[in-house]
Structures are given as C-alpha cells and as structure tokens.
Amino acid sequence: MHVPDGFINAPTSAATGVIAAGAIAVSLRGARRELDERTAPLAGLVAAFIFAVQMLNFPVAAGTSGHLLGGALAAILVGPYTGVLCVSVVLLMQGILFADGGLTALGVNITNMAIVTTVVAYALFRGLVKVLPRTRRSVTVASFVAALVSVPAAALAFTVMYAIGGTTDVSIGKVATAMVGVHVLIGIGEAAITALTVGSVIAVRPDLVYGARGLTHKLKLRVNGELVDAPQAEPEPAPVAARTSHRKVWAAGLAASLVLAGFVSFYASADPDGLEKVAADHGIDKRAEEHAVADSPLADYGVEDVDDARLSGGLAGVIGVGVTVVAGSAVFWAVRRRRSDSTSPSDTTDTTDTTPSTSTTSV
Questions:
Q1: Locations of Low complexity compositional bias (predicted)?
Q2: CA 164 to CA 264: how far, in whole Å?
Q3: How confident is residue 229, by pLDDT bands cut at 50, 70 and 90?
Q4: Cβ proximity of 194 and 76 under 8 Å
C-alpha cells in the first residue's frame, strides 16, 4: 500500500506530514517507557523483519497481490509507540533507498501504514486479551484478529485521504469498495503472518512479547480464611540462560530476515499489490509522478549493474535488512539511552503492566 508521489495533492500530503511528524514525536516519548532491557534489542530487529517480509508479495486474487504492513506485528511484539517507530523506519528506508513509496507522500504512508494500523490493531488486541482466557493461545488469536482488521482500516484511511486530496476525478464510493474489499483479503495474509510470528516468539520467550505481559494471574494467599493478593516480588536480574536465549532469538530473527529478503523474495508474486491494482483499474495512477530517487542504485529492489535477477534482488534484500536493522537499532538505542539518562535510580521500577506480575501461572 505504498502511495507514490502524485496520488494525493500537496496540501493534503503536507497535512499528513504534520500528522506523521506529531505521531513520531509522541511515539519517541512513549517508546522511552516501552524500551526496556528486553524490548530495546528486539526493536531494530522487528523493523528489519518487517522490511524483509514486505518483500514477499502473496497472491490474493486474480492479478492482485498483497504484502505485510506490519503495524500490528510491531505493536504486539515491542509496544504501540515503538511499533509506530519501527514501521516508520522501514518506510523511510524504502522511500530513500529503494524508491518504494513517494517522498512527498511519506506522510501519507506513515499515517496509513504506521499510525492507523498500529493504533487500530493494538486497541483491538488489548480489548480482546482482556475478555479472552489468559493463555498463550489467546494472545495468538487476538494477534490474528487485530492484524486482520488493521489492513482494511488502513485502506479506508487512504480512501478518506483520497476523497480530501485526490488528484483525479473518480468515484470515491467505487474506490472505497475496491480498496476495502481487496485489503480484507490481504488482511487474512497479514493476520496469518502476524499470528505465526507472535506465536513462535511466545513459544520460546513469552516475556519478549510486549502484548503478552501483565496477563498472568496474581498469586493469592489465604489469610484468616480470606484470599488476598500476595506482595509483588522485586524483579530479579535475568539469569545467564535467559540472556543467552535472548541472543539466540535475536540471531534467529536476523537469520530469518536475511533468508526471506535474500532468497525467498525471488519467488514472491509479481502481480501489482492492492493499491496498485485499484489505482490502475480506476485511473488513479494517471497522475502518478516519477520517484525522486528513481535512479537510486537499489531502486525497485535490485542492485544496479547486476544483471542476474535472482542475485540482484537477493543482494538488495540483504542490504535492505542490514541498513534497516542498523538504522532501527540506532534510533531505539538513542531513545533507550535518553530514558536511562533522564531516569534516576529510584525511578527505574516501572509500575505499569509492562512487566509481568508475580503469579501462579504464566501465559
């Protein structure tokens, strides 16, 4: 759903740019609370993984493909504020290096693919986990539903933007029907990828899934015949085994990202994605403009002067994963460091539900 330059007029693009900038500023502040010793190392990896999986277009209908947006996945794994930043980093790398998504439309893309998907998905996810049983399976189910809904929500947001600032005279009703219809199908693929990824991480390190924290039952003690909440124990330093497992999860995630972008992406569907198909069918693409960095050596996810298509695409994917994980990690390290610098030792204990409470059962 990468919107190119020319689809949306300048005033609307500028307005969405202001919205995106404001949301990123808020997210930078909010991410300070989310980025702890578990979340911070994974945030850059989540951005790289989203970049890699977005290269894997999957067929959804005759002549149409879809790809992961990633807002739901990022929000559930590392938190909603950090999730907005993860997807924004991916979109920035794609726009600057790979000529994917217009630069003047960067605000539109961040608003649609980072803000709308993350807010809608995480709000729905939190609502579901409150009413579902407190189990790992419930977290996975909630992830599936949240991701599924987030994609047509983003499609609807684009339609609203196009109704306000579209550059061609087309029926908004037809655009809305086509956009939402095809993106419901794409949402099924998004939901499957999100649930599979979240479920895989929960299976090995449930404490690394931000959305699964705080879902444990508090330990009860019987005092004078009545059940009362037991005092919460002070958090203990992570054992060496847990830290090792954390590094293994990070290494496995990076390896998977490199394989997906460097090898599996060659077999992705070549059909236009949902937005491209709707734009072609309804004449929206008549006003599309050439990308400002169309002559980039990595434009269209290929390496310039490398004639072999498989090698060119694979190298571009590997470079993209590497650049994204470095850029993302640098951003989140800086945010985490600023939190550490601004927090006194007596304030380091977080009283929100971002840390698991003492319990008799775990998710």
A1: 342-363
A2: 39
A3: low
A4: yes
Give the residue ranges of DSSP H helices in the chain.
10-34, 39-54, 71-78, 80-97, 106-109, 117-131, 136-165, 172-204, 240-262, 274-282, 309-342
Structure tokens at 243: 């830290």
Residue boundaries of the structural domains of the chain: 10-232+250-347
Write the pLDDT tens digit of every residue in 252-268: 999 999 999 999 999 99
* Residue 127, token pair as written in the block: 């609502």
Check residue 4 and report its DSSP letter.
P
Amino acid in the structure at residue 239? P
106: which 2 tokens? Answer: 């960067």
Residue 237 has what DSSP assignment? P
Residue type, 5: D
Cβ neighbours, 10 Å, residue 337: 13
Helix axes 309-342, 10-34, angle to 10 degrees: 60
Return the structure tokens found at 283: 């004449």
> 57: which DSSP letter?
-
Amino acid type, 29: R
Q: Are 67 and 53 in contact (CB under 8 A)?
A: yes
Q: pTM of this prediction?
A: 0.87
Does the domain at 10-232+250-347 match CATH 1.10.10.1760? Answer given as no
Q: What is the DSSP letter of 272?
A: -
How far the first Cα of the chain sits from its last, in Å, is 34
Q: How far is CA 362 from CA 75, 79, 221, in A?
A: 21, 20, 17
**What digits encode the pLDDT tens for the residues 55-90?**
999 999 889 999 999 999 999 999 999 999 999 999
Q: State yes or no: pLDDT of 53 exceeds 80.
A: yes
- Lowest-pLDDT range, 11-25, 65-79, 304-318, 348-362? 348-362
